[in-house]
Amino acid sequence: MSGVGSTEPPRSGGAGFAGAGAGIFTSDEMMAVAAARRLHDGTVCFVGIGLPSKAANLARTTHAPGCVLIYESGTIGAKPARLPLSIGDGELAETADSVVSVPEIFTYWLQAGRIDVGFLGAAQIDRYGNLNSTVIGDYERPTVRLPGAGGAPEISAHCRETYVMLRQSRRAFVERLDFRTTVGHGDGPGSRERLGFPGPGVTAVVTDLGVLEPDPASRELTLTSVHPGVAPDDARAATGWDLRVAEPLRVVDPPSEAELSALRALEEAA
Prior knowledge:
alpha/beta; Glutaconate Coenzyme A-transferase; eight-stranded mixed sheet
């Protein structure tokens, strides 16, 4: 079930950046804050472990206390005081409004269209937001065998929005996936409609460099904003295809002191 979490190998949180009035923050902290800001009070969010869980819990403990967090293990309305170690972490069940079976989470909640936002991680992503969390290399003889799909294909198919959190590098942002685990926008315009998917697919990819969003016409991921201290060429250099850049290109506001304090409190309690 780990398809909804991060399948990317761990790496450093990045260099420190100075934000106006917020002190020093890392690229990972900026990524979590940028993703958290996209969630609103009352949002029903299907959460994966790792970076997605960090962002969703930051939103819940700051500007969106009514955000309803649903984990794949069957917990609804979880309110962990620390970042959970896995979807089976007892903290989730102990703080949840309700605990239901996994089949009910998928049939009654997800497939019925009751989830506003699904958070996904992956090992690879292509220009159309398709994801790989299955293998690196040839499927029969892979160099790395990853955890697999989990609930990711269903999340991308049925959620009203799907956010991807992934550190940006040429290893992860590839011209061609080694294996297509999860459909984002398929081969471009019309792909999801032909497959009968009701959800809009990947609507935002939040990285440690900025935010990418699908072009309304081509469905190709386009860099729409960068984090403080990041230049468009930094994002282009970390992408395995010719990355398009929006005009005007926005710069994300740096984390506030309150956001950083709340995020670090969650991490320290873990």
